[in-house]
């Protein structure tokens, strides 16, 4: 299944979305993927028990670049967990920057 090619009247899923919808989709997928990654073994330090809601909040906070935390990032997460949080913040920063919203950056943009 090719999401970017259109064939006749049918268009790919990503081409049917307007830029604000695509931006929202990027944020939602980033939050879901970030929370799933933070659930993996080795992301938190031994003895630190963060539940699903706390990890979802951490991923949301990272990708929305708010800086809110429920646990000290340096104390609760391993290096791999910290790198994951930093990458989520980078994705969120790119998506909220003017160059990230540029219509030429999106599939089918001018």
How does this structure look, described?
With 110 residues, the chain is an all-alpha fold. The chain is 54% helix and 0% strand. The protein has five helices and no strands. It has helices at residues 13-16, 19-39, 52-63, 73-76, 79-96. Helix 2 packs antiparallel against helix 5 and helix 3 (52-63) packs across helix 5 (79-96).
Write down the oligomeric state.
single chain
- Beta-strand percentage range: under 5%
H and E order: HHHHH
What characterizes the major β-sheet? Answer: none
Helical amount among residues, as a percent range?
40-55%
User: What form results from the Cα inertia axes?
Assistant: elongated
Helix/strand structural class: mainly alpha
Radius of gyration: 17 Å
Mean pLDDT: 82
Distance between the termini: 24 Å
Low-confidence stretches: none
Question: So how many helices?
Answer: 5
Tally of DSSP β-strands? 0
